[in-house]
Write a structure and sequence with these properties.
Elements: H1 3-7, H2 9-24, E1 30-34, H3 41-53, H4 64-71, E2 77-80, H5 91-100, E3 111-115, H6 123-134, E4 140-146, H7 154-157, E5 161-164, H8 185-190, H9 193-205, H10 210-216, H11 222-239, H12 249-261, H13 264-282, H14 289-307
Parallel strand pairs: 1-4, 1-5, 2-3, 3-4
């Protein structure tokens, strides 16, 4: 069992639920696992598959099957993900799956295809995957991993048995930032979350203008920046109904100020816009980053004047 699963109770609970299916090899053809950070979906998927492939049927970590999974060399296990964090999963990547899934497994009885961040498939890729899921070969099993499902077509989800990890109890949403991989682009951005909060406070107080703030963040990966704003909005929405005792004092003061400027309705409106922008990025539609940030910040100001007055 991986250290990630040992550390986080939601993963332990889910592993206890799924382990009998993998050990007994009685699995649905397609599984959808949904879990936001800090759930490490890749590690969790490997733990589940190890229980299926393991010679001892318990994910021993030492047999040839388990070692190949850990080293990423198992010939019957294929991972598909984005070529880079700012790109969608493309149709050609799904077509590569189609070429492999009909081949006889080399070391085991079944092939596993794991699609990491399945919510990042563009429309063409999702359509191609749907065709595969409609008539998959019996010896191929699919695991789709996603942090959220609003970008996954309902037709794809309908072909999968869905399992959702329970949220962490900590009510201070921004406290989860440190749980991202420290070398990831989101972790580096979220390390500047206080700067994001400060910029919003300065924007509302007139110390900073929209153009200057947009220029400051124009070189940050847009999807990560939008997610940062989404987290802040979510914390503000939560703060209207509950004050977390775990939030740092300086952050709390900024959040309290911003919550007085924006009502929950305004924040929901802003998050709807953030979801639309992220969906465009996910579908590889052209988005002008600087103009998008300026437009978003303009909405913050407009909604503050209308809703927060």
């Amino acid at each position: 069992m991986s250290s990630m699963v040992e550390q986080h109770s939601p993963q332990l609970q889910m592993l206890e639920t799924l382990k009998p299916m993998f050990v007994n090899k009685h699995l649905p053809q397609s599984i959808l696992l949904v879990g936001a950070q800090p759930v490490d979906l890749i590690s969790f998927a490997k733990d589940c598959i190890a229980n299926f492939y393991c010679i001892s049927s318990n994910g021993c970590g030492t047999c040839r099957q388990c070692v190949m999974i850990q080293e990423g060399t198992h010939p019957d296990l294929q991972f598909v993900t984005q070529e880079s964090p700012d790109k969608a999963i493309k149709v050609d990547q799904i077509r590569d799956i189609q070429q492999n899934i009909y081949q006889t497994p080399q070391c085991t009885t079944h092939r596993f295809i794991v699609i990491h961040r399945a919510c990042k498939m563009n429309q063409a890729a999702a359509n191609a995957l749907l065709k595969v899921l409609e008539e998959p070969p019996k010896h191929s099993l699919f695991m789709l991993l996603a942090e959220q499902v609003h970008n996954l077509p309902a037709t794809v989800m309908s072909r999968c048995q869905k399992y959702v990890f329970k949220d962490q109890v900590d009510t201070a949403i921004l406290n989860h930032i440190h749980l991202y991989d420290k070398d990831s682009s989101r972790s580096k951005l979220f390390g500047d979350t206080t700067n994001l909060l400060t910029d919003l406070v300065d924007l509302f107080s007139g110390k900073q203008n929209i153009c200057a703030m947009s220029a400051k963040w124009k070189d940050v990966m847009l999807d990560d920046l939008l997610w940062g704003f989404y987290l802040i909005n979510a914390q503000l929405i939560h703060g209207h109904y509950y004050v977390s005792p775990n939030q740092e004092q300086s952050t709390t003061e900024q959040l309290e100020y911003l919550s007085k400027q924006l009502t929950p309705m305004a924040l929901f409106t802003l998050n709807d816009k953030l979801c639309v922008l992220r969906k465009k990025l996910n579908n590889s539609l052209s988005v002008n980053q600087l103009l998008s940030i300026e437009d978003l910040l303009l909405d913050y100001v407009k909604l503050r004047l209308v809703e927060g007055s």
